[in-house]
Amino acid sequence: MATQSWVNREYRRGYCNHHTPVYFLSTGITTACIQMSNFNWKPFVFGGLASVTAECGTFPIDLTKTRLQVQGQVGDSKYREIRYRGMLHAIGRICREEGISALYSGLAPAMLRQASYGTIKIGTYQSFKRLLVDRPEDETLLTNVLCGVLSGVISSSIANPTDVLKIRMQAQGNVIQGSMMGNFINIYQQEGTRGLWKGVSLTAQRAAIVVGVELPAYDLAKKHLILDCHMGDNIYTHFLSSFACGLAGALASNPIDVVRTRMMNQTYGAVTYQGTLDCLLQTSRSEGFMALYKGFFPNWLRLGPWNIIVSFHLLSEVCLCFHLCMFIYC
């Protein structure tokens, strides 16, 4: 208010012409206000809410995926034993031996990850689309894939430290003690900044592959169901399309996901793999090629119908509720 009064006073005194600092100051303030009013914050907020909710619903599935991916490592005595035969067997054994609460080991960093990763991913995805096209009907598959890859790479890179801690808490269960912040500090003290961003390139690659494969697969599946199978554009079509694109995404990303999980789970002083390529070669040589598809089924369930439907339909519902509340109270 003080700045605005000062600008108005200068105008009244006649000092504010097109060549004075006052003019440029007032113009800058006006431009900034217009830009702030045009900023669409809703995709960021609703995207974060939808992502956090989806994470809560699918977290036990994600934990079994991590446990399946880290087991059977020949070079690591801690994870050499094959303890789980599959997702359901893993859930049952974890509940019997560690308690039901163990299925939610690492939930706190996972929630923090989705609050940052999900918020940034969906928010920047919508923002990038607004930069490239003016109207939704002008969007193309290439535009959506490009925006999705960029938003996925940016958001996953920023949220990488939470991913590292989540995977370690999932894999090691009750071995990790203390608060989330305390464990962040321990990783930083023992491994430095590189420890918190361990596997960041793999995380970015996985995000790019998932988006780059899933969006075209979803589009093709939905088009085929509507045109060739004569299904309408309804929830059943969305479910089947999500099922198909989740399968494609899991097939394409699972090998990178296995390597990423194992690299992130390496703690200070217990280095089994010297790098990404070394991990890939050791895993395929000592455990066979199919070891790169450990945890495939829970990965498919995470990428497929449940996670997609919960995320995007909840996002739509939250947006609808927001508009209804604004209509009632405004």
Automatic annotation (TrEMBL):
Protein name stated in the entry: Solute carrier family 25 member 30
SUPFAM superfamilies, per database record: Mitochondrial carrier
Solcar repeats: 42-131, 139-224, 233-320
One record GO biological process: transmembrane transport
Compartments (UniProt record): Mitochondrion inner membrane
Catalytic activity: sulfate(out) + succinate(in) = sulfate(in) + succinate(out); L-aspartate(in) + sulfate(out) = L-aspartate(out) + sulfate(in); (S)-malate(in) + sulfate(out) = (S)-malate(out) + sulfate(in); D-aspartate(in) + sulfate(out) = D-aspartate(out) + sulfate(in)
Recorded GO CC terms: mitochondrial inner membrane
Organism encoding this protein: Oncorhynchus mykiss
Origin superkingdom: Eukaryota
UniProt keyword terms in alphabetical order: Membrane, Mitochondrion, Mitochondrion inner membrane, Repeat, Transmembrane, Transmembrane helix, Transport
UniProt record similarity statement: Belongs to the mitochondrial carrier (TC 2.A.29) family.
Primary site of residence: mitochondrion
Membrane topology: Multi-pass membrane protein
